[in-house]
Amino acid sequence: MSAPTSASHIWTYRFVFIALCGAIIIARLLPLGLADAGLPGPDLLVALTFAWLIRQPAVVPIVSILIVFLIADFLLQRPPGLWTLMVVIGSEYLRRRRLQMTEFPFLVEWSAIGGTIFAMVLIERLILWVLFVDLAPLGLTLAHAIVTIAIYPLVVAVSKYLFRLRKLGPAELEPL
Prior knowledge:
By secondary structure, this protein is an all-alpha fold. Helix content is 69%, strand content 0%. The protein has one domain (3-167). The chain has seven helices and no strands. The N and C termini lie close together (10 Å). This is Rod shape-determining protein MreD.
């Protein structure tokens, strides 16, 4: 078995993924006053999950996504399970389309991620609207999605150059 698909490699990156997600959640819980700038911050959890999922899908199993986002829903006082459901559906959609994206340039991947994030945000908003939940203004919600999509290339660059997480091709995924 080659190095990128070895069991120790996969488990090491799984622990790193969980640790990064924990650090992001803790940073969002701290009263740093970052939301006072006027623009909503990016959803780094979603960007990190999608970037790592596209690069090496074995590193981000669905159970990890489920646990991380469900904990985030409770700690960040979001409707429990709704955003988690959106992320799980979005990540499984991207996981199934992943092999097609390896053959195309980064712009195609970025567009697919952007479309997925917009669909997740709009479906979540529709569900909350049907359930008569008080909603944030649509512009603010869309700005949050746009900022998340805009930060995605930076998350990919950090994942690639700092964490050495490279995109696996179809031949390297065979053993998995």
